Amino acid sequence: MVSRVIPVDTFDLVIFGGTGDLARRKILPGLFRRFQSGQMPEDSRIIGAARADLDDAGYRAVVKGALEEFIEKGDRPTNVVKEFLEAIHYVQIDATGSAGWPELSKLLRAGVVRAFYFSVAPSLFGALAERLHEYKCAGESCRIVVEKPFGRDLESARALNKTLRDHFDENQIYRIDHYLGKETVQNLMAVRFGNVLFEPLWNAQYVDHVQITVAETVGVNGRADYYDKSGAMRDMVQNHLMQLLCLIAMEPPSRFDPDAVRDEKLKVIRALEPVEPSDIVRGQYASEKKGESYLDQVGSDSITETFIAMKLQVSNWRWAGVPFYLRTGKCLKARASEIAIVFKDAPHSIFGQELGHHRNILSIRLQPNEGITLRVTIKEPGPGGMRLVDVPLDMSFKDALGPDADVAPEAYERLIMDVIRGNQTLFMRGDEVEAAWAWTDPLIESWTERGDRPKPYDIGSTGPEDAAVLMHREGRRWREIKA
Ligand code: NAP
Question: Which CATH number fits domain 11-147: 2.30.30.40, 3.40.30.10, 3.40.50.720, 3.40.50.1970?
Answer without folding.
Answer: 3.40.50.720
